């Protein structure tokens, strides 16, 4: 009896965490589904149950398709640059002879990742500006003046300009993680391969790539999850414009729920994001479980 | 220069290897310029006046005066920095303490149903703030926490406890337990073991967690934007967009404000790089 009481008492160690997470992380997700089946008048506080009407509206909303496509673009481009590009870059850096240079490059490329997305977003908002920006100035000096344009003001370039900023900011982070994974590969594998006459490319393909495959898999999943939650940089740089061309699911949710005060419809968009991130999250969990016996 | 060193070291001088190496080094340098130059440009623009900003973007400032930085600091940035420091420090302490308690309970006590508790805590990692935002607005309004520091401190803690618990728990699992067994023999309580033995032993991972949390809280935007509207409770990221809205035409002040908000975190990164990297490399399994 005493022992039983003692073991129940040890719940106190986790109590605060469980209450906090339950209250502020889990409960809102459940509540979100309830909100998504209602129409709320924020002025009178009146709530009407509308069933699945918000989801029906979602299926016929052309901007939802634009947003979903932009999230997919985000995912694809980020996987190319922040996973495969970062892998190659990390392999290149770790192949340098001097540890001092390796450390320098890793740190230099990481710097933008430490800075707030609000700052980098605003910075690139200025860089993309035709009057004062760096990009158009560089293009005209290189004799590519015909490309000069307001990158964020053009429906066809806005989302790509935002994604490009995001690659600039994020690739150093994944390069650092790949560098850490590469450092864990035993050096004698490389020495043996060199003695056998394997060139740099051969070593990259036959040693580095297979031995960091777990990290690559994980990074692909993390990157895709992140791409479906994108919000900050789009909000800061274009708020979804011009003409909704750079909307992503997160900013469309914000627009509907907080600018147009339509909580019910916003919650339905949130439910879509929830399902998408749960799918990638489940993939991640499965991947981690398979990788380590003890999580 | 590095290329010549490489040539000297190679036994048979292979022209193609030298060319490839030179090409790779130039690539690394060019990429470094692309990464760093925009940040330098940002800091330099903080020294220029508007006329200069509209002139040659590559020019150095005509006068090195701190006026724009002082103006930015006095027109709001000081307040935003204060709020950011307050929210970051408070939520870092709460997050790390609560996570360390939970990790201790999960690794060092006879808590029943551990797998379930682990599943609940770590499951929180998969839930994103975006999805919870609408119910949270209703909830915090009902609690009367809307537009207060508390909203941010509570939410930053709740959303970061899963990740931080995960890191500390992994570290505690690898700690040998003979010290606390000896302490139990001597009659120490669980509480004493936590404060006197386990927590001090976890110092390295605690530092990593604090740094990762500082990075998160200092830069967080979504919650800060939605839950604060008065300028006296806004953190830097939101404050910056307010400055942009009010001083939008005075570019140099905006650039100065951006530089001021980026600088502390870059300094933290370089000062604590070792802990930073440890936290990141252990955290990627999240």
UniProtKB/TrEMBL annotation, chain A:
Where are the membrane-spanning stretches? 12-29, 73-92, 104-128, 158-182, 211-231, 263-287
Q: Could you name the domain of life of the organism this protein comes from?
A: Bacteria
| One Pfam family recorded for the sequence | BPD_transp_1
Q: Which InterPro entries does this chain map to? A: ABC_transporter_permease, MetI-like, MetI-like_sf
GO CC entries: plasma membrane
Q: Where in the cell is it found?
A: Cell membrane
The record's CDD domains line, in alphabetical order, gives: TM_PBP2
| Gene3D superfamilies xref list | MetI-like
| Domain spans labelled ABC transmembrane type-1 | 68-284
Q: What is this protein called?
A: Raffinose/stachyose/melibiose transport system permease protein
UniProtKB/TrEMBL annotation, chain B:
A cellular component term from Gene Ontology for this protein is: plasma membrane
List the keywords (alphabetical).
Answer: Cell inner membrane, Cell membrane, Membrane, Transmembrane, Transmembrane helix, Transport
Q: How does it sit in the membrane?
A: Multi-pass membrane protein
Q: Where in the cell is it found?
A: Cell inner membrane; Cell membrane
Fetch the CDD domains from UniProt. Answer: TM_PBP2
One GO BP annotation of this record:
transmembrane transport
Q: Where is the ABC transmembrane type-1 domain?
A: 81-272
Annotated InterPro entries: MetI-like, MetI-like_sf
Q: Which SUPFAM superfamilies match?
A: MetI-like
Q: Which domain of life is it from?
A: Bacteria
- Asked if Lyase is a keyword of the record, the answer is no
Listed transmembrane segments: 23-44, 80-104, 116-137, 149-173, 251-272
Q: Which Pfam families match?
A: BPD_transp_1
* UniProt keyword NADP present: no
Q: Which residues form a coiled coil?
A: none
Q: Give the protein family.
A: Belongs to the binding-protein-dependent transport system permease family.
The free-text function statement in the UniProt record for this protein reads:
Part of the ABC transporter complex UgpBAEC involved in sn-glycerol-3-phosphate (G3P) import. Probably responsible for the translocation of the substrate across the membrane.
Q: PANTHER family recorded for this chain? A: ABC TRANSPORTER PERMEASE PROTEIN MG189-RELATED-RELATED (PTHR43744), SN-GLYCEROL-3-PHOSPHATE TRANSPORT SYSTEM PERMEASE PROTEIN UGPE (PTHR43744:SF8)
Q: Can you state the subunit structure given in the record? A: The complex is composed of two ATP-binding proteins (UgpC), two transmembrane proteins (UgpA and UgpE) and a solute-binding protein (UgpB).
Q: List the protein's name.
A: sn-glycerol-3-phosphate transport system permease protein UgpE
Source organism = Mesorhizobium qingshengii
């Amino acid at each position: 009896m005493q022992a039983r009481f003692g073991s129940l008492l040890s719940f106190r160690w986790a109590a605060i965490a469980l209450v906090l997470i339950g209250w502020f992380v889990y409960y809102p997700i459940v509540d979100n589904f309830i909100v998504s089946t209602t129409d709320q008048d924020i002025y009178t506080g009146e709530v009407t149950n509308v069933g699945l009407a918000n989801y029906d509206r979602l299926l016929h909303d052309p901007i939802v398709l634009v947003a979903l496509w932009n999230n997919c673009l985000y995912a694809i481009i980020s996987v190319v640059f922040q996973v495969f590009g970062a892998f190659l870059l990390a392999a290149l850096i770790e192949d340098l002879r001097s540890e001092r240079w390796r450390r320098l490059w890793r740190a230099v490329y990481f710097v933008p990742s430490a800075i707030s997305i609000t700052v980098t977003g605003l910075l690139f908002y200025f860089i993309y500006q035709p009057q004062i920006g760096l990009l158009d100035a560089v293009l005209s000096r290189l004799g590519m003046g015909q490309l000069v344009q307001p990158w964020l003001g053009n429906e066809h370039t806005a989302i790509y300009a935002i994604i490009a900023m995001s690659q600039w900011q994020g690739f150093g982070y994944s390069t650092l993680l790949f560098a850490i994974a590469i450092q864990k590969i035993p050096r004698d594998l490389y020495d043996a391969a060199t003695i056998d006459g394997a060139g740099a490319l051969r070593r990259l393909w036959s040693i580095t790539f297979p031995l960091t495959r777990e990290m690559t898999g994980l990074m692909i999943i993390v990157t895709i999850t992140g791409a479906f939650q994108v919000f900050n940089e789009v909000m800061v740089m274009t708020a979804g414009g011009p003409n909704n061309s750079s909307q992503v699911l997160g900013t469309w949710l914000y627009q509907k729920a907080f600018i147009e005060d339509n909580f019910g419809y916003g919650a339905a968009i949130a439910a879509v994001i929830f399902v998408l991130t749960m799918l990638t999250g489940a993939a991640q969990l499965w991947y981690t479980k398979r990788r380590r016996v003890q999580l | 220069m590095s290329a010549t060193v490489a040539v000297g070291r190679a036994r048979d001088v292979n022209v193609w290897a030298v060319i490839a190496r030179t090409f790779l080094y130039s690539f690394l340098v060019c990429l470094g310029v692309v990464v760093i130059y925009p940040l330098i440009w940002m800091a330099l623009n903080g020294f220029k006046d508007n006329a200069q900003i509209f002139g040659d973007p590559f020019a150095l400032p005509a006068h090195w005066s701190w006026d724009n930085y002082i103006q930015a600091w006095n027109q709001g940035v000081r307040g935003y920095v204060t709020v950011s420091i307050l929210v970051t420090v408070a939520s870092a302490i709460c997050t790390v303490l609560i996570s360390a308690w939970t990790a201790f309970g999960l690794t060092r006590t006879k808590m029943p149903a551990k797998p379930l508790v682990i599943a609940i805590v770590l499951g929180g990692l998969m839930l994103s703030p975006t999805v919870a935002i609408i119910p949270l607005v209703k909830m915090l309004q009902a609690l009367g926490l809307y537009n207060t520091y508390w909203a941010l401190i509570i939410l930053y803690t709740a959303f970061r406890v899963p990740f931080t618990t995960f890191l500390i728990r992994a570290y505690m699992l690898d700690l040998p337990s003979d010290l606390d067994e000896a302490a139990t023999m001597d009659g120490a309580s669980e509480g004493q073991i936590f404060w006197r033995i386990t927590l001090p032993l976890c110092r390295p991972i605690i530092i990593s967690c604090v740094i990762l949390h500082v990075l998160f809280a200092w830069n967080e935007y979504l919650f800060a934007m939605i839950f604060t509207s008065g300028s006296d409770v806004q953190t830097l990221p939101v404050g910056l967009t307010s400055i942009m809205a009010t001083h939008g035409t005075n570019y140099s002040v905006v650039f100065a404000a951006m530089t001021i908000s980026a600088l502390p975190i870059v300094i933290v990164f370089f000062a604590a790089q070792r802990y930073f990297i440890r936290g990141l490399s252990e955290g990627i399994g999240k």
